Amino acid sequence: MDDTPHSTARHDEDNGRRDFLKGAVVAGGAAASLGLGAVAAQAQPGRVPGTLNHYYVPATDKTVHWGYFSKLLKPLVEVSSGDFVTIDVLTHHANDDAERMVKGDPGAEAVFYWDRQRKGVDRRGAGPMQPTLFGRGAGEGLGVHICTGPVAVKGAMPGDILEVRIIDVKPRPCANPQYKGKSFGSNAAAWWGFHYKELMTDPKPREVITIYEVDTSGDRNWAKALYNFQWTPQTDPYGVVHKIIDYPGVPVDHRTVRENHGILKNVRIPIRPHFGVLGLAPSEADIVDSIPPHWVGGNIDDWRIGKGATMYYPVAVPGALLSAGDSHAAQGDSELCGTAIECSLTGTFQLILRKKDTLAGTALAGLEYPLLETQDEWVLHGFSYPKYLAELGANAQSDIYSKSSVDLALKDAFRKMRHFLMTTRGLTEDEAISLMSIGVDFGITQVVDGNWGVHAIIKKNLFAGA
């Protein structure tokens, strides 16, 4: 994957991309010279001082929405097409080890604050504000990700496409002086993991948290495991006991767990920082669970959605309303045990609006799913139910969790790739089907997000002879 910011010069040289978009207008890469340090001192959302087209959105209790997307949220900033925005993203698993991932960080401390009287962010999910479903807390945990945003794009309307170029991604440094120069993340082998009912060793069942260390400077491109512990019943500040990991942000009392150090010895996990959640506000409901992904993005959990990649999202509501969350240091295809290495990140993005009336004859015309592009590949995302909020009716946000399958997701990815090859490359259906079998890689994106995902990867060099 190319690690250089996008620029007009690069796009002029990249014939594959130019042919793909067939002459669509490309904005410049003026943010290439803007380091993240330029925005560090700015506490409020807004334009970065000294720039004309770079905005910053910090992660605080006032700038995040926890566990849901909503078309009703007021934008924190409004940008124009071609502008850049730097967004801070907190992992919702930071309280698994608050000493390493919360302490000393004003933004994280504000978001995770919870005592007997109040929570820094009360609603944590798309459920009812009164905990009438399960008695767990406001939002009931039906949606878990801390999402920063939304960012509105001026002039964006349903039918348009928002192009999101990921210019840079960096781990959020630990603010605790005891761990200076390091970042940390948490992996939860949890009850929603694919493995949970297939355990071999006792005790069964069990949930296990593993804490990883990441080098903030970027000099070391791998993470190492520090320790793990088995989840024990945790009592939150309101007095509710959580026997399993069932409500986001519950602080773990480490006096109640046994930390096992010296695990995964000599294992180096390649880090590939990315955003598990990146997407636009859906139109079908006012408050939408952040867990199942869908046609306007969200919790896709594809590790390829990182630095150097470009995402194309169909716009469903005025302004598009982009949010970022579920930041990861590393993840494999499938996210099998329940999570990635959940690690707070800062990302810089360039947002380019592709108006509907300019898309005729391009691959973006009629796009109805999140499309990923890297320097070398196109990646199409299929889901068990690509538009589950419309397909499954009034109870979609609960029914999706029992109806997903890899078979359905693979079928959706196949259909999308067939359409992609026939429309963008002019292949016949027979040609497309043959090429898919011999030249397209289908992979399991994730099997833990309610709406399971299968991605299809096609290399651009397949068409080098054109």
Count of individual helical segments: 8
Strand content: 25-35%
Distance between the termini: 22 Å
- Largest beta-sheet details: 10 strands, mixed
Please give the radius of gyration in angstroms: 21 Å
Structural class, from secondary structure content? alpha+beta
Low-confidence stretches: 1-15, 22-39
> Based on CA inertia axes, which overall geometry fits?
globular
| Average residue-wise pLDDT | 92
Strand order of the largest sheet: 1-2-6-22-8-19-23-24-26-25
The total count of strands amounts to 26
Helix content: 10-25%
Give a description of the structure.
The protein has 466 residues and is of the alpha+beta class. It is built from 8 helices and 26 strands. It has helices spanning 8-13, 15-21, 98-101, 106-112, 388-391, 396-403, 406-424, 429-439, and strands spanning 46-47, 54-57, 64-66, 68-69, 77-79, 84-89, 146-153, 161-171, 182-189, 208-215, 222-230, 234-235, 241-242, 260-261, 269-270, 274-280, 288-289, 297-299, 310-314, 322-330, 341-342, 345-354, 371-373, 377-383, 440-446, 453-459. The strands form 5 sheets. It has a 10-stranded mixed β-sheet. Strands 3, 5, 7, 16, 18, 20 and 21 form a 7-stranded mixed β-sheet that branches. Strands 9, 10, 11, 14 and 15 form a 5-stranded antiparallel β-sheet that branches. Helix 7 packs across helix 8.
